[in-house]
């Protein structure tokens, strides 16, 4: 009988060594996890934990809302830190702080620690570590490893998101993120202090709907990898009756 599979997510701040006041940054970084509640509680196997410096990890049993988690985390982090920069600095840096993500799926061979994502081991963690290392090596934002036949197709979809993401500065990311959260163009414009035509122009020039569909497709495909072991387990139980 196959064991249940879990999703281990490792996130890492890109070029974190270039941050001048790292202690201040890490303090803000850690605080962001307290305000993000995009996952259903029963889908969080082990709470997100800052592990070493500018890296964090968590364990889930579903990939649903995974990309909303990415959006919310980066939006809130950049929003806090953007207030500490001048307009010229923001224009120069474009996207203030980027995060890369390594996603691994597999079994966990040790006891689950629900409170913090530390002290556990198994293929889920090995795959997540391989995934984040691949993302670093190939200068990608997202990477996925599970050892299943779906790895190649999921990573092709992620590669498209990687390429598209590099075209977006922080202002475009803000507008698209709020649009994905069902804000109207008028609400977005008022919130960011820009004109509605400016918001409309960015939304027309960015493949927003394709991005949303791609993200949902990736989440669904990862859920199929997670559910495959479960369905196999259920069929074994049925056959034994």
Quote the beta fraction.
5-15%
- Determine the structural class based on helices, strands and strand pairing: alpha+beta
Number of strands: 5
* The CATH class: Alpha Beta
Average pLDDT number? 84
| Alpha-carbon Rg, integer | 19 Å
Entry keywords:
241 residues; alpha+beta; Alpha-Beta Plaits; 5-stranded mixed beta sheet; 5 strands; 53% helix; disordered C terminus
Written overview of the protein:
With 241 residues, the protein is α+β, with helices and mostly antiparallel strands. Helix content is 53%, strand content 14%. The protein is built from nine helices and five strands; from the N terminus they run βαββααβαβααααα. The chain has helices at 22-32, 66-82, 87-93, 123-137, 151-165, 170-180, 185-192, 196-205, 208-240, and strands spanning 6-13, 44-50, 55-60, 99-106, 142-145. It has a five-stranded mixed sheet with strand order 2-3-1-4-5. The longest helix has 33 residues, at 208-240.
